[in-house]
């Protein structure tokens, strides 16, 4: 079996903005799915959901995006109808519950990071990616499987930063994982990057899960500062059965606050 981890980023890696509460935290959420399952189940069922509620056509792929869905913005304006919204939310929650995937989320407090390491700091994105992929490597080793890594394209300079960070981990390892361990289970030394418009099912799933997962972690730390909405709360409940627990517990494996 071959797995793929689809990564979605919430926040930005700029340390200079860490004093602003709206930009204080950076999180990476990885959704691990077996590739054959993506082909046979995840992708077809996501496309069927789109056709049912939004009349999506193959010539113009519709891309699920949490923010637009939440606000019922085009092309999701059908969700402004309360009954349609109710049915969509119900079906989405059922799919999120029944699909086979594993979630690993890492959230970094950039302000504490900046204040603690006044003269020496990791790049925030590289730090989060290292912690995320350490857990992905352990996930693969635990199952005796291999996998690769897939992220959403953010544009030229951002994509180069992503790829450089990944290559560094492949070649040098991390603080806790030797490079040979990365190389033994990751099938490519190159990070795969594609635009959201390419209609990658795993990236759309990661987009839906990333904010609820991040907010759950911040709420646990007493750092969220607002209430979590009813739908997101239901997603968080589902996530408790989806977080990686290879160590026997979610904390430190499926969820990590730095």
Tell me what you see in this structure.
By secondary structure, the protein is an alpha/beta fold. It has a single domain (2-257), classed as Ribonuclease H-like superfamily/Ribonuclease H (Nucleotidyltransferase, domain 5, 2-Layer Sandwich). Helices cover 48% and strands 16% of the residues. It has nine helices and six strands; from the N terminus they run ββαααβααβααβααβ. The protein has a six-stranded mixed sheet with strand order 5-4-1-2-3-6, with helices on both faces. Helix 8 crosses helix 9 (230-239). The longest helix is centred in the N-terminal third of the chain and has 20 residues, at 35-54. The radius of gyration is 18 Å and the shape is globular. It starts with a strand and ends with a strand. The mean pLDDT is 90.
CATH superfamily: Ribonuclease H-like superfamily/Ribonuclease H
Determine and state the CATH class: Alpha Beta
What gyration radius follows from the Cα positions, in whole Å?
18 Å
Distance between the termini: 31 Å
Can you count the helices?
Answer: 9
CATH topology: Nucleotidyltransferase, domain 5
Class by helix and strand content? alpha/beta
String of helices and strands? EEHHHEHHEHHEHHE
Please state the overall shape, judged from the principal axes of the Cα atoms. globular
- Mean pLDDT, as a whole number? 90
The major β-sheet equals:
6 strands, mixed
The CATH architecture can be given as 2-Layer Sandwich
* pLDDT < 50 stretches: none
With strands numbered from the N-terminus, the spatial order across the biggest sheet is 5-4-1-2-3-6
> What percent of residues are in strands?
15-25%
- When the domains are counted, the total is 1
Could you estimate the helical fraction of the residues in percent? 40-55%
């Amino acid at each position: 079996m071959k797995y793929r981890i689809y990564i979605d980023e919430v926040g930005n890696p700029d340390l200079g903005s860490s004093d602003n509460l709206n930009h204080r935290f950076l999180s990476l959420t990885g959704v691990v799915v077996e590739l054959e399952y993506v082909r046979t189940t995840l992708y077809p069922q996501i496309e069927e959901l789109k056709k049912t509620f939004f009349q999506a056509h193959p010539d113009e792929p519709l891309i699920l995006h949490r923010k637009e869905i939440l606000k019922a913005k085009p092309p999701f304006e059908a969700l402004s109808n309360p009954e349609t919204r109710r049915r969509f939310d119900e079906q989405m929650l059922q799919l999120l519950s029944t699909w086979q995937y594993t979630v690993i989320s890492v959230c970094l407090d950039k302000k504490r990071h900046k204040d603690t390491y006044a003269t020496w700091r990791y790049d925030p994105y590289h730090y989060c990616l290292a912690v995320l992929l350490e857990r992905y490597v352990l996930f693969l080793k635990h199952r005796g499987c291999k996998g690769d890594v897939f992220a959403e394209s953010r544009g030229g300079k951002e994509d180069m930063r992503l790829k450089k960070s990944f290559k560094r981990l492949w070649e040098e390892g991390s603080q806790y994982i030797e490079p040979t361990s990365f190389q033994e289970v990751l099938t490519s030394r190159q990070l795969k990057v594609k635009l959201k418009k390419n209609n990658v099912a795993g990236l759309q799933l990661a987009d839906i899960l990333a904010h609820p997962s991040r907010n759950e972690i911040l709420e646990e730390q007493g750092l969220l500062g607002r209430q979590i909405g009813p739908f997101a709360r239901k997603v968080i409940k589902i996530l408790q059965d989806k977080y990686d627990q290879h160590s026997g517990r979610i904390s430190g494996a499926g969820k990590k606050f730095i």
